[in-house]
Structures are given as C-alpha cells and as structure tokens.
Amino acid sequence: MSASQRTARKRVVIVGMGFGGMHAARELAGSQCEVLLLDRNNYHLFQPLLYQVATAGLEQESIAYPLRALIRNWYNLQFQMREVTGLDLDGKRVLTDKGAVEYDYLILAGGSVTNFFGNAGVARHAFDLKRLADAERLRNAILTTFELAVQEADAQKKRELLTFVVVGGGPTGVEFAGALAELIRYVFRKDYPSLRLAESRVVLLEAAPTLLGAMPERLRRYAGQRLQQMGVEVRCNTLVADASEGEVRLGSGEIIASRTLFWSAGVKAAPLADLVPGTKGPGGRVPVQPDLSLPGHDEVYVVGDMACVLHNGAPLPMMAPAAMQQGRHVARSIICRERGETAEPFRYFDKGSMATIGRSSAVATAFGLSCSGFVAWLVWLFLHLYYLIGFRNRVVVLLNWAWYYWFHERQVRLITADDKGNASGGADG
Amino acid sequence: MSASQRTARKRVVIVGMGFGGMHAARELAGSQCEVLLLDRNNYHLFQPLLYQVATAGLEQESIAYPLRALIRNWYNLQFQMREVTGLDLDGKRVLTDKGAVEYDYLILAGGSVTNFFGNAGVARHAFDLKRLADAERLRNAILTTFELAVQEADAQKKRELLTFVVVGGGPTGVEFAGALAELIRYVFRKDYPSLRLAESRVVLLEAAPTLLGAMPERLRRYAGQRLQQMGVEVRCNTLVADASEGEVRLGSGEIIASRTLFWSAGVKAAPLADLVPGTKGPGGRVPVQPDLSLPGHDEVYVVGDMACVLHNGAPLPMMAPAAMQQGRHVARSIICRERGETAEPFRYFDKGSMATIGRSSAVATAFGLSCSGFVAWLVWLFLHLYYLIGFRNRVVVLLNWAWYYWFHERQVRLITADDKGNASGGADG
Questions:
Q1: Tell me, what's the ipTM?
Q2: A41 touching B, CB under 8 A?
Q3: Which of A15, A108, A154, A283 has the fewest CB atoms in 10 Å of its CB?
Q4: Overall CATH class of domain A120-265
C-alpha cells in the first residue's frame, strides 16, 4: 500500500516491540495516526525477568505477551511479524523481508544485543540473556551439568561441571548469580543429595573495583556481602581474557575450569543501528537530537538502548526505564506535531535503579533515597509485577514467587532440549 | 557398583518414566527395594495434554513434572538421566550411554513413538505429538502460518497456509482438531480481523468409517456432529497416500493444499522394544506372560505401550490407564515375590475412555455407561487435573482453563522459534 493510496491519516511505523516500542505504541493507541508495529517476534518480552527463567524460577511463557493481544482493543494499531533488512530514509520506507513499508513517522526501537567486545572465544562459549530462547538454553545447560555431575566419577571433571562463572557485576550479573546460588543452595541440595554443596561454585567476576557501579557505596557493599553470604565468590578488578570448552582464562593468566560461562559484561546497539546512516556513538548507538529525532530526518526517531541520548554529559544507561520514557516521549511528540504544536525536547527523569539479590533481599535507589534488604525486595517485586504486561502473566509469576518464597521450590527445572533424538531408551509414551 | 557389592536389598531398575514407569516407581516408593529410575528426560510428561500446548492453551512447563521432585521424599528411589543403548538380560545389566547398570528386577516402560507406517513423505512433513518439543514446534508452526497468511497477497498461497490437515480420528486427532478449530474461531478471529473465518479450514481425515472407533455409536455420532458444528471438515473412509511441501495427497488421488499436516493415525512401540530379544507382536510390541514378565526372564517386566498384553483376545490399547495399571501391578508383584508370596497375573480393569471435543463438550464411557456434552467435559476436566502431577501444575492448568472458559482467550500464543538469528531488525532489547 503506498502512502498516496491511504487516507489523510499519518502512518507511524515502529520497529521493535521492546520497552521503547511498546510504550510508544500504547501512547499512540487511539490517536489520529495509523500505527504499524513491526517485530521479528510475535510477543513483547519482559527482559528483566529472563534471569528467573534461566534459573528455573519462571516458565518462559509468563514473561512474554502476545503483541496481537495488546493491539486488539485499538482500531488504529496493526502488527506484522517482519524482519527489517534496510532503511530508505529519503524515500520514507522501511525495507523488510516481506517487502517495503512506507511511513510518515518512523520510530526505531531495536534495543540491544550482547557485546562480547570482539572476543571470539567468549562469544562462542558464553551464554547470554537477551532473548527468550537464551534463557531456556541456559536453564537446560545448568540442569544438565548437575545431571552429569551426579554421575561423574572423576573429581576434576565434576568440579568443572559444578563451577559457574558469571561475568559482569551489573544488575543482570548480580541478579543471575544470586538466583543461581539460591537454586543450588535451596533446590539442588534436595534434588542431588549425593553432591555436597561445597562442591559447586558460583564465581562472579567484575572488571571494575566494585559491583553495581551505578549504585551508592552503601548498597554496593551490601550487595557484595549478601552475595558472599549466599556462597557466591565475588571477585572484582578481574578481567576475562578468553574462554574455551571447559575453561575460562582470566586477564592474570589464571584459569577457572568451568563448563558454564554467563556473560553480562556489556551490551551494544542492535544491528538495526547499523542500517541508520551516519557515525555512531559509544556502543554503536545512534546519536540523536534533543527531541530524539535523527539529525536531518525529523520524522525519524530513535529510542531506547539503540539511541545515544546525553544526560548530564554522559549517554543514558541502556535500561528499560529510559526506553519507556523515550518511547512515550516520541509518541507524544508525534501527536503534538500532528496538532500543529511544537514538540518538547526529551527530558530524562531518573527514577533510580534496583537489583534483587535473593529471597527477601534487594538494593534500590529512588529520588535520592536508597534502601536495601526486605523493603527494597518488596519494592522490586511490586514494580516488576506492575510493569509485566498481562493479568494472567502477573498471576502466574506471583504464584511462582509465592511458591518459591514459602516452599523454597522452583518447579520449572526441566531440561527441554531441542536435540532430543528418536533413539531408544527413555520414556516415549 | 556391582550387585555383589551392594547390600542385600534388591535393586529394581525402571526404564522410562511415562505413566507405566511412574506408577511402578510410586508403588515401590518406601518398599524394601532399592529403585533406580532411568529416563532420557528429567521430567515426567503428561502426554494427554500435549495437544493443548500445541494449540496455545497451556505453557509446556505446566504438563511436565521434574522427576527429582518426585523422588525427593523417598529414600529408596534414585534417578539418573541416561539413554539406554542395550540390554544384557543374561548378565542382568542395562547398557546405557553412561555405562552399564545391574539389576535384580527390570521394568521396561519405554512407551511408544508415532507410527508413520513407513511413509517417508509423511514422516518428513507431518507434525506429531509425543514429546514436549513436538508440541512447542507445532504451536510455533500454527502461529507462524497465520502470521504469514495475514501478509500474503496470493489467494492460493493464503488458502494453503490456512488449511490444516489432521490425520487420525482417534482421541488425539479429535481433541487436537477441536482445540485448533476453537483457537481459530474464538482467538484468531480477534487476533487477525483482516482474515475471514471461512478462509481457514481444519480437515480431519479418518481411514475407518467413523471417528473414535472404540466408542459407542451414539458418542461417535455426537463427536462427529460437534466437530462439524465447530467448523471441522470430518472425512471418514479417507486414506492419506503421501505428503510433500504444501500438499497432502489422499488415497483417491485428491490433493489438499496445506502447509500443516498433523499425524495421529498410529503409534508403535518405542525403539527400546527392539533391544528386547525375540519376535514382536503387532506394532512392534513385546509379547509378555500373563504376569507381564518376559518369557524366559521372569525378573524382567514390560509395561505400557511397549507391552503386547492380550485382553479378551485382542492387544490392549496403547493408553495411559493400561500403562498405569500395569506399572502398579508389576511393582506389587515384585514386592510380593520379595516377601516369598506368589504374584497374581495381570487383570486389566477397563475404566472406559474419553475425549474432549471443545469447550463444554466431551464424550466419555465408564462402567458400561456413556455420556456426552457438559457432564462428560466436567468429568474429563476433573480426571485430567487429578492425574496431572504436582499441585502447582494443577493450579496453573486450572488457571489457564478458567481463563479460556470465561474470556475465550489462550494466552500462550507465542512463536518461540529456536532458529532466531542475530540479524538486524526486531526488538533485541
């Protein structure tokens, strides 16, 4: 459908339905614009809880929400499952695997991918957590190492199987390390009574001098101490040089024998950013104007992890709250412009940040205040449930959390490998 | 560990943790025997609800139960995730991918696999439902055809995408066809408003003159009528000759253009049966003595779909109730023998059978009585919840069913493909 054949209603195309794209779409719902959402997946993924899928705490379905369920109630929203292959900014067209799409306004919200900083060994051997399939793969790997370890006679191999290396002391690394340590301590201890707790190790490596660098000193200390109490070996000032099958090599030359390496030490803009002409900022992010539009193309907006937005002189962190605010901002800007009003520049409102460490334990900052422990954990719980989309998802997630809280039990510890052959043995019926 | 090194306690090895193996294990829990469970998966799968996973009604995790959660409370049960590669019946050893295991008693409960009757075209192009991954794959395929169809300009290709062929009018075929028809009618109609309901077809093919051949005439007629009311094209006396990409060829030479072929027209004993010496019965099933032991090896039992057990002159159907009864029976036989008592021959108690057709609609027979409609549906619901293992699973399944019942909504309509590349476009963050 060409733009000329359409009605006078302006068409907004949103590429990527993460937090940025999703919040832009919600803001534009019911507006005078015709909105087309494009994503390669048919769901919105609640990435902050991926680590709980990876540690057998939640079923993957409970943190994803079908986009068609979202758009159903809005006559002006449309969704198409497509892969973007190019941008024709002068022709105002998005090129996709299923043909070109014309737009009047374009919102690019492709998010980010894991940054292995060009380290091929790490990229090949490490797990990361950006997509739903990543979380299932990591959960399968963790459970499989324990099933192998319990049958392993060789002490050295067993130790290698039961050593988990987590790289990156940001919120994702801290949350994953804590959840994994608790999985081992509370659940696996009962599942594998023949393995001693001391045989397994969770090692958290951070290149900087402290964990959670963006947090106040007191919370950083608290997080480090809590993790250590839970049995996590926290090693700051430690760089990873390389990884191979069964080995993680540190910058110092030290080798940690481990089969499972989890990498959360960096993100960079999604490959969609490469399709945008012009030089990129740090992390491959697209530099934007103060109103989040692309220089020279004020009908094209870039939001979320992909956008390099300066705040107090530094690029905004690649976090969900920034993406949500930006998504809403550009949607409102488009509505303003269509009314003939002038759009405001984007102003980031820092709501603070948080990380959960374990059961009843988290750190959080907000409005200059900071808290830790049970209260922070309750705040974390409430906010994550609030931002999770779909009432049914909230119920399932809450049910799982309550289960874990009271029974110390995580029931999604299934190895759902895809490579199950049709070989003999095992139950087929 | 060799048998001689062990204590005087006898070791029972159970291969396969489907319904037969699971019920044998539960019966042996707390007994004087040491019981080792082997399975290639780390969970018990509730196969009767696989079709609901495939039609976006349930998350896959809710119908699987971790075996280690099951054995945890019983000191005499052990589990090892292993693949059986051979049987040394004279040496009383099971050979596995991780070494040999000795036994005093062996229970073979490998279940069944889909029988394509040697038709290579069908085997390559058809979906089946035996394992958890099958259900996820089929759900992804169904959802993907709709996402493609909504963007397809060519009417012929669109029709091909929206045509679903179900082969086999037994309970699985009937349940799947009904659930798919309802998914399209209640959920996809709202998700894809631009597609007309009449454009999609669900065709149910059965080689015999009626559906549900094992059921009384009245129920067969009811099931056929209900399915047709729901928009399913029911064609009996119809054989499938072959299948290729986008085509299903019938015995009559007629070709149905369809991208999705679901095969539930036959099962056969799992490949584990091939490892048992001796000639096999129909469907590759292992002929057994009246006490379910292997002729010449009274310490080896075969139960469930793998066993060819005669009842009123015909082999028992390959169904969960038979497997459960047999599993419990052999477990009790072993306990009897260890007490020096004589084990009874197995007697099958026919509890009847049932199939759900859609919301508020099912057929059931029990104790010579038969019922259909809402009452049968309630019975079906209750029994499936009862036999589903794990309280949390029951809550999640009941929640999903209530959701669907009241809101006509199935929320697990996610395309969780594994082959998501790292290409540009789509939301990565």
A1: 0.91
A2: yes
A3: A154
A4: alpha beta
